[in-house]
Design brief:
single chain; mainly alpha; Helix Hairpins; 70% helix
Length: 83
């Protein structure tokens, strides 16, 4: 039980140091990447992949050549999936 809490504290420390490093470099993630993909943050990887594939197929610039908004949304979905 003690080992679990020590691991949890270590992971929290690493998360905070990573966040501080990114902020110091001027890199912040303001948008909710899970919301961009339309999934809950506890979603399994296969649900995330499925959501990405569906959104990418729907918003792809080749399928929507006249839609500028679709291009921006497609890029946001691709960025969210990559991260």
């Amino acid at each position: 039980m003690v080992a679990f809490f020590m691991l949890l504290a270590f992971l929290k420390y690493r998360e905070e140091s990573f966040r501080a490093y990114n902020i110091s470099k001027g890199k912040t993630i303001e948008e909710d990447l899970y919301a961009t993909l339309g999934v809950h943050y506890t979603a399994p990887i296969n649900e995330i992949k499925s959501a990405y594939k569906n959104l990418a197929a729907e918003l792809h610039p080749d399928k929507n050549p006249d839609c500028e908004d679709c291009k921006e949304k497609f890029e946001a979905v691709a960025k969210a999936y990559e991260i």
